[in-house]
Amino acid sequence: QVQLVESGGGLVQAGGSLRLSCAASGRTFKTYAMAWFRQAPGKERESVATINWSGSNTNYVDSVKGRFTISRDNAKNMVYLQMNSLKPEDTAVYYCNTKSEQLRLNWGQGTQVTVSS
């Protein structure tokens, strides 16, 4: 089964940028539509960005539109999330996984993003 490892989080000031990476193992990765999720303390995990298998179609939750960009490199089995103009409310643990709940993979450990004001 595909395994997911997220990286790239850290502490950044408001207005700063981070680029998250998700490394996926397994040959079937390129067939999955993927998504980035985040979970803030005391809140439910939410999907913030999705990308189809080829990378030609992306969607974002309203709160990150215009600031976050999801991309993928199927040759490298990677999914990325470029986050610009970060806000304190973006503070959360970020995870990648399949867009489809029915095809959901085991969750990775996530990567912590902390935005200071």
Short overview:
With 117 residues, the chain is an all-beta fold. It is built from no helices and ten strands.
Distance between the termini: 40 Å
Describe the oligomeric state of these chains in a short phrase.
single chain
What structural category characterises the helix and strand content?
Answer: mainly beta
Please give the largest β-sheet.
6 strands, mixed
Q: Please give the order of strands in the largest beta sheet.
A: 2-10-9-4-5-6
What share of the residues lie within helices? under 10%
Number of helices: 0
Count of beta strands: 10
Shape: globular
Instruction: Tell me the strand percentage band.
Output: over 45%
Provide mean pLDDT, rounded: 95
Radius of gyration: 13 Å
- Spell out the helices and strands N to C: EEEEEEEEEE
Low-confidence spans:
none
Description:
The protein is mainly beta and 117 residues long. It has no helices and ten strands. The strands form two sheets. The chain has a six-stranded mixed sheet, with no helix packed on it. β7 and β8 form a beta hairpin.
